[in-house]
Design goal:
Blueprint: H1 3-9, H2 14-28, H3 37-53, E1 69-76, E2 79-87, E3 90-99, E4 102-113, H4 120-128, E5 141-144, E6 147-156, E7 159-168, E8 171-182
């Protein structure tokens, strides 16, 4: 699908059209070609590898960028991913991707643990199984033992928002909102 035609025929809000245009402008000037799906596939595959090597994969934290923050980083071939979050039971964070030192995509998230049976390893397992179609958090539905994970996303990588929750025996014990898109 050619992005120019998509933007022309899009019925998205003005801000989404602008984000799509910025995505095109940024990558048309880079080593990636927006005219092919190769660029999008490379970026999605990089994002998935990065998430699996950091928080979801129980990766090692790097030096804190802010007081009391948790930072995880992954790099390869001029691409960099950093996940930074604050808190624990009540948390907020940000994931950002850079190409050659220039930020081009980010996602913010904020959530809370609201039940006593929360299992952080279950959350990481759900996040490790993120789908290629929506590589933001975890899959639409994931179940393991007594725990169920659900995630809903609206939008595209250029402009999106979503919500995830975990239930233990049908009782909600965790929730998180997230949103993000292109950075210019």
């Amino acid at each position: 699908m050619q992005l120019r035609l998509f933007i022309k025929d899009s019925k998205f809000w003005k801000v989404q059209k602008k984000a799509l245009s910025l995505w095109y402008l940024y990558f048309s000037k880079s080593e990636f070609s927006m005219e092919s799906d190769i660029m999008q596939n490379e970026l999605v595959e990089f994002l998935i590898r990065a998430k699996k090597k950091t928080y979801a994969g129980k990766g090692t934290e790097t030096i804190a960028s802010r007081p009391q923050s948790h930072n995880l980083m992954y790099e390869e071939n001029g691409l960099k991913y950093i996940d930074t979050y604050l808190g624990g039971k009540l948390f907020t964070g940000e994931e950002v991707m850079w190409q050659n030192g220039i930020p081009f995509w980010a996602m913010n998230y904020s959530g809370r643990i609201i039940g006593g049976n929360f299992d952080g390893d279950f959350l990481k397992l759900a996040l490790f199984n993120l789908p290629k179609e929506n590589p933001y958090r975890g899959p639409d539905y994931f179940e393991d033992g007594e725990y169920t994970y659900c995630c809903k996303v609206n939008g595209e990588p250029e402009w999106f928002q979503g919500y995830e929750e975990i239930q233990h025996h049908g009782e909600k014990i965790y929730e998180c909102y997230f949103h993000g898109g292109i950075v210019e």
